[in-house]
Amino acid sequence: MKTVYELAFHLNPDLEETQVQQLYQTIENYVTSAGGIVSFKKEPEKTRLSYPVKHKQQSYFGYIHFNLESKEELANIDEQV
Questions:
Q1: Could you tell me if 8 and 61 are in contact, meaning their C-beta atoms sit under 8 angstroms apart?
Q2: Cα–Cα distance between 78 and 57 in angstroms, integer?
Q3: Please, are residues 15 and 60 in contact by the beta-carbon 8 Å criterion?
Q4: Predicted local confidence at residue 61, as pLDDT
Q5: How is 1-25 classified by DSSP, letter by letter?
Q6: Exposure winner among 2, 23, 55, 62, fewest CB in 10 A?
Q7: Helices 17-33, 71-80: inter-axial angle, 10-degree rounding
Q8: Closest among 42, 34, 35 to 64, alpha carbons compared
Q9: pLDDT higher than 90, residue 77
């Protein structure tokens, strides 16, 4: 049985837009190379944080919803990200 997962992430707001897209693509590649099937994704966009993280008031925030067959595949993703 496939389980639906969500991988949400924050990226440094000081990154260039091309770097953000490259990192986002890398994260998505980790999911798909581990056998994940992406069902929905929200590309990272700059957002204001509720409280500072490492002295930053903003971050790029995005997420990916995906399906996996087994928890072992999830461990592979967790090791990569």
A1: yes
A2: 26
A3: yes
A4: 97
A5: --EEEEEEEEE-TTS-HHHHHHHHH
A6: 55
A7: 150
A8: 42
A9: no
Structure tokens belonging to residue 61? 């925030």
CA 28/CA 40 separation, integer angstroms = 11
Q: Nearest Cα to 17, choosing from 72, 49, 60, 68?
A: 60
User: In 3-state terms, what secondary structure has residue 47?
Assistant: strand
Would the pLDDT of 80 be above 80?
no
pLDDT one-digit tens code per residue, 24-69: 999 999 999 988 999 999 999 999 999 999 999 999 999 999 998 8
Residue 34 carries which side chain, given as an amino acid letter?
A: A
Q: If you count them, how many residues does the chain have?
A: 81
